Amino acid sequence: MTDPLEVLVVAGARPNFIKIASLVDALDAHPDRFAVSIVHTGQHYDETLSRVFFDELEIPRPDINLEVGSGSHARQTARIMTAFESVLEQRRPELVVVVGDVNSTVACALVATKLGVPVAHVEAGLRSFDRTMPEEINRVVTDAISDLLFVSEPSGMDNLAREGIPRERTHFVGNVMIDTLLKHRDRAAGSSILADLGLAGERYAVLTVHRPGNVDSAETFGRLVGAVVEIARDLPVIFPVHPRTLDRIRETGLRDGLESSRGLRTISPLGYLDFLALQSAAALVLTDSGGIQEETTALGVPCLTLRENTERPVTVTHGTNVLVGTDPGRIVSEATRALSGESKRPESPPQLWDGKAGHRIATILEQWRTRRA
Description:
Elements: E1 5-11, H1 14-28, E2 34-40, H2 47-56, E3 64-65, H3 73-91, E4 95-99, H4 103-114, E5 119-124, H5 134-145, E6 148-151, H6 154-162, E7 170-172, H7 176-189, H8 193-196, E8 205-208, H9 212-215, H10 218-231, E9 237-240, H11 243-252, H12 255-260, E10 264-267, H13 272-280, E11 284-287, H14 290-299, E12 303-305, H15 314-317, E13 321-323, H16 328-339, H17 357-372
Parallel strand pairs: 1-2, 1-4, 2-3, 4-5, 5-6, 6-7, 8-9, 8-11, 9-10, 11-12, 12-13
Helix pairs in contact: 1-7, 1-17, 3-4, 4-5, 7-13, 10-16
């Protein structure tokens, strides 16, 4: 009998937890075929929030925590690489799985590749074509060196083919984030968050913003806040504030403007189930998050993306997402349109967003190992 495939699954930030949940569940369902260890790099580390995500998503506790913490891109990436190299030298797995596009993704992929350990990239092929985004650099580099590339939407297959990635390394499997959403949607419906916020039966919008291009510039951030304050005159806007965004609010002097708006409510970051419940019942979501663009598409909730581009075009062509940039006039006019009921609703989810992406990946990994034997 063949020993199980030794797999190290890497997660570095809260969106990564959502992405690994489906995959770890699918692999753990076959302990005779896969031996899974989870590495948490600690790129985004808050003990309370991390514990909540792992508990709510029913993910086993990480086997290894590198505890690298925050820092500049170079310093953080270097710390992850140094710490992860020691892990690989000790563990010597047969495969490293990385997800998404954070610094942990590219750092661990680079270390594994240089040590001759095959790499699988989940959520491969996404492109914004904006090299000013650190995530875009991480995506391009990770895909170039990965042995197996698991793609969440058709545009990813096209992008990888254009970049010369051999077809036999690419696999269109669907979206692991949507696997997680579909699995936990009923549990999220039992959340008390709407009652806790006094929103039960009420119409409201949700705002999330954290990308450097939006929050690091006082001028850009101020425009966004001004547009949201305008929208909040007509309905409550709930704003779970990302820690990085909170720092920028303090630094840019926007706190007074936020606090003076009666309709704009800032709250602490939420766990997965509470935020899923908040999104599901929203009349509108405004965001610069890639994952939320996908989740709102799956939920059928109108979404305005506060960016000029998206690496997830299927959310625009087959979903509820509209790119509105950072122009206040456009944001307000598109919000008005969405709230009037004029915005489109998808007739069906994007291709292969059916809750089975993790299982498809597990099947392909088993076939890959058989071919290598």
